[in-house]
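Weekly puzzle thread! Below is a chain. First person to post its structure in token form gets bragging rights.
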Amino acid sequence: MNQYSYLENILDKSRIKYDEPMKKHTTIRIGGPAKCLVLPTSIEEIKNIIKYANENNIKYYIIGNGSDIVVRDEGIDGLVIKINSKFDNVDIEGETIKVLAGTSMPKLSQIAKKSSLTGLEFACGIPGTVGGGVRMNAGAYGSEMSNVIEDITYLDENCNIVTITNKEAKFAYRHSIFTDNPRYVVLSATLKLKKGNIEEIDKVMKENTAARKLKQPLEYPNAGSTFKRPEGYFVGKLVSDAGLRGYEIGGAQVSIKHTGFIVNKGNATSKDVEALIKYIQEVVYEKFKVKLETEIEFIGGK
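Winning reply:
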């Protein structure tokens, strides 16, 4: 008997996908099949899914839009819980926004703009959900989520609903308590913004969008910035100065447009990406004695 069949008592069958190719659910379009992927529509469903996984010793992963992750070629021997558009809602009261975790970051920034609220201009091009943005303390153009978050509500590994303050989230560069505790499920966040001028906000967002299109390899599937920024350096310059612009292993390539990105040129495998990351790290360390730490995360497989 399929150990996931019980989930059909919790969810509509149309929201349960067996042997689901994960390349359909990641922005880099790489990844073997997950034994089971589910699309919950309520907190109660998430709780029941996690309880079942815990009781049956099934490993589970939480994903949103699938940016910042690479699923290994062997796939995921476990359960993937995808927090998608069923958890997409934004409520605004004055300068406070309450947003659900499945809301896309660009959509959130546009809604804030329409209410003349400033503080989320940086998020207009981040290709992830609010849940992922909170988890990774996503940022761009000199700002990040921790600058605007007031509190966060999440499910812990025992399915308790917990609300914590910004300070309790222990935000740091691309880090929070959620990166330390991958079984926590971000449900929503309260953001505190400021009243601004809608024309000014729009101008900044258009400038950010234009810069992103000009500088980032949006024409190829990618997982976002490959490496965290080492203190005192820029990753793109290090990789470029190491002579690795355009360097390829299999179907994975150091982007010609922005050397801080690895792109999928067509049929890249996770092994290609891992091998290319390792090579970049070795060459950069050999030439500049700088250790590059990955920002993207590999899941599944070995």
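Puzzle host: Confirmed. Bonus trivia for everyone else. The chain has a mean pLDDT of 95.
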